[in-house]
Amino acid sequence: MLETTPFVARLGDATKTYGRGPGAVHALRGVSIDFTAHTFTAIMGPSGSGKSTLLQIAAGLEPPSSGSVELAGRDLAGLGETALTELRRDHVGFVFQSFNLMPTLTVAQNVELPLRLAGRRPARGSVQEILERVGLGARLRHRPFELSGGERQRVAIARALITEPAVTFADEPTGALDTHVAAEVLDLLRETVREGGQTVVMVTHDPVAAAYAQRVVFLADGRIADELVTPTADRVAEILTELRACRV
């Protein structure tokens, strides 16, 4: 899909400021970062460090105040809302803490919804196949209220992957799950990268969740403060503690 570029999303000296004057909030301050294809990156940092803002801007949901953003091989500068919507629809998957499933639709209907909204029909057998991949092949006709929290998140992941996105952005995907179920969901996300060739960018506050990623990027006060490759939960926690101490 992205043969000519090694990255699927890139921020160049991106800033984001909310408001003006003395009360302005500088959520991002000159952040430059690449998200390489077929990798799993976790974004971490103290509360208010800019994690969610970075994800929103990288996903094309918010424009930066200055700097550049590229997504799925496109420079977002100057794109109108229709073009941005189409770009996200065709190349970006989203997984949220709250699942965001349609309660009146079946599992299969929820998964195929992004394709239907784009005016496309799922390829024959593709919904069954993606649900088999996430371990829910026998739950096609169930509705969300009949599923556990972990199963609902698996449906949300299947829905994100059905369009074969260039990148999937996950915002605290295990925040509403208990430890055991969270581990299963994180294993699934990691498998989509290792075996399915997907790209995942995940915001999390949990060092254990971050340790499932190949790379952890730490933010503090709107800037990249550190980076860790092949992380462990203990080392992630240490860096977070150091960043929090610097803010006191």
How many angstroms does the end-to-end distance come to? Answer: 45 Å
Order of helices and strands: EEEHEEHEHHHEHEHEEH
Could you describe the largest sheet, including whether it forms a barrel?
6 strands, mixed
Number of helices: 8
Summarize model confidence as the mean pLDDT. 91
Shape: globular
Q: Which structural class fits the helix and strand makeup? A: alpha/beta
Strand adjacency order, main sheet: 6-7-8-3-9-10
Which stretches are poorly predicted, pLDDT < 50 over at least 5 residues?
A: none
Count of DSSP E strands?
A: 10
Strand content: 25-35%
**Roughly how many Å is the radius of gyration?**
18 Å
Report the helical percentage. Answer: 25-40%
Tell me what you see in this structure:
The protein has 248 residues and is of the alpha/beta class. Helix content is 35%, strand content 26%. It is built from 8 helices and 10 strands. The chain has helices at 51-58, 81-91, 107-117, 126-133, 149-161, 179-194, 207-210, 233-247, and strands spanning 7-18, 25-36, 40-44, 66-71, 74-75, 92-96, 167-171, 200-203, 215-220, 223-229. The chain has a 6-stranded mixed beta sheet with strand order 6-7-8-3-9-10, with helices on both faces. Helix 4 (126-133) packs across helix 5 (149-161). The chain is globular and about 55 Å long. The N and C termini lie far apart (45 Å).
Topology:
Elements: E1 7-18, E2 25-36, E3 40-44, H1 51-58, E4 66-71, E5 74-75, H2 81-91, E6 92-96, H3 107-117, H4 126-133, H5 149-161, E7 167-171, H6 179-194, E8 200-203, H7 207-210, E9 215-220, E10 223-229, H8 233-247
Parallel strand pairs: 3-8, 3-9, 6-7, 7-8
Antiparallel strand pairs: 1-2, 1-4, 4-5, 9-10
